[in-house]
Amino acid sequence: NVGGAFGMSIASEDYERVLVAGLFFGSLSSSSGVLQALSDSDLPDRRPGLAAEARLVGFYAAWGLATVWLSARLGAGLGGAAGVPALPIGLEVLDVPVCVLCVGVFLLGAAGPLLTLARHGEAPSGELTSLEAYRMLGLAACGLPGALYVVDAASFA
After folding, report:
1. CA-CA distance, 107 to 149, in Å (whole number)?
2. Assessment of whether the complete model's pTM goes beyond 0.85
3. Which residues have C-beta within 8 Å of that of residue 11, sequence separation ≥ 6?
4. Would you say 99 and 156 are in contact if contact means Cβ atoms under 8 Å apart?
5. Which of 16, 24, 67, 98 lies 20 to 30 angstroms, CA to CA, from 31?
6. Inter-CA distances, 59 with 37, 80, 104, Å
7. 37 φ, ψ to 5°?
8. Residue 79 burial (CB < 10 Å; 0-12/13-18/19+)?
9. How confident is the model over 70-107, as pLDDT tens digits?
């Protein structure tokens, strides 16, 4: 889309390769985030809910993986159009459970930051600093597009 805005075009025969490369790099980046959340000893802290750095990194890495899965399902010929298989044979068994996980991840992305803010509140009466409370509002706004993806994930589940 960005390239198209500058007059660039990708030949239709190249589209699949470009999309697969994007899916590969997106998966690599998000998987690295999951590994960081699980292994980086500097991440854990005592902040509540999604304000905790390890939870935040792990959650948004999972959000990235969920968007990569839906991109693979909707693009690269994997959208289930007439005559096109929904998924390669080996991945069909994963479709329903991964799409159910995607629904959970996208719902948590929209609601999790707001629940953290509602449950723990802003200082002085709550546990969150004003910056953390502001961050939760921003994260909730960023999570709203994921709420739209729930429909796609649920339709595949």
Report:
1. 9
2. no
3. none
4. yes
5. 16
6. 9, 28, 11
7. -65, -35
8. middle
9. 888 776 554 444 444 556 667 778 888 888 999 999 99
Residue corresponding to tokens 């706004």: 141
CA distances from 122 to 26, 56, 137 (A): 34, 18, 12
Are 31 and 65 spatial neighbours (Cβ–Cβ below 8 Å)? yes
Tokens of 1: 């889309």
* Rounded distance between C-alpha atoms, residue 82 and residue 128, angstroms: 51
pLDDT tens string, the chain, 157 residues long: the values are 556 666 666 666 666 677 778 888 989 999 999 899 888 888 778 888 888 888 888 888 999 999 988 888 776 554 444 444 556 667 778 888 888 999 999 999 989 999 999 999 888 888 898 998 999 999 999 888 888 888 888 887 7
Q: Is 36 in contact with 59 (CB distance < 8 Å)?
A: no
